[in-house]
């Protein structure tokens, strides 16, 4: 953290002798003198007056000595803070949160098991829901995040992380508040006849593909492909076009201009904890506690339904 020659300088000043300083530092007196000479040359200052009666600090030496002591204290404080930060980082879980993938279900589990993880802390890290960015965030598990939570059966996601299912969300349909269907409390597939249903294009999500297979059996319903991963622009387009949007029950409050309605169909998608492909021991310990909690307490966080 500082020029090591300062340590020798301070020891000489405290000892009042090159020889005594050498004994305290377990080096030769010649090495001590060489270090002091090098420091004086580096600073272009004379730090000690040397006489037949011994050595003494010069005025410049006294100033350097005073500030060296402060530097030592500051350096020790900095190292102590750095070590404390490193210790905290080693016992802090970072969980990501976004509008479409909020961390609340994780928090509900955390408060159930955190007493069994004394010393561990939780840090919430926000991220954006965008088409390409979400894959970067998934890939960042183990670096930027320890955990994410959300609905997931995406092949692209599951190629990049592990997944601990916690339950399922129902597939629903969102419509603008002024849409005629918004007055209903529950939809049937026939209610969507004559409509253009916005939904994720085929190929990445097996559960969405099953919904699509079902919808395609009803040719009175047109389909508009959306990107593989929703962001706020997808919900905005639903408002602008007035086309119904296949959504999830957990997204009911995402856009204030939309109403999310259940549909009389059996389709659900799993939700749960996403974690690194190669989790560290602390992560595995937390997940083990979560599994025990799920086995011993079948009631899941409020608003979610259990896996079949």
UniProtKB/TrEMBL annotation:
Taxonomy, superkingdom: Bacteria
Q: Please name the CDD domains in this protein's record.
A: PBP2_LTTR_substrate
Q: Which Pfam families does the annotation name?
A: HTH_1, LysR_substrate
Keywords, A to Z, come to: DNA-binding, Transcription, Transcription regulation
Q: InterPro entries this protein is in?
A: LysR_HTH_N, LysR_subst-bd, WH-like_DNA-bd_sf, WH_DNA-bd_sf
Alphabetized GO MF terms: DNA binding; DNA-binding transcription factor activity
Q: Where would I find the HTH lysR-type domain in this sequence?
A: 1-58
Q: Name one GO cellular component term.
A: protein-DNA complex
Family recorded in the similarity comment: Belongs to the LysR transcriptional regulatory family.
Q: What is the name of this protein? A: LysR family transcriptional regulator
| Species of origin | Evtepia gabavorous
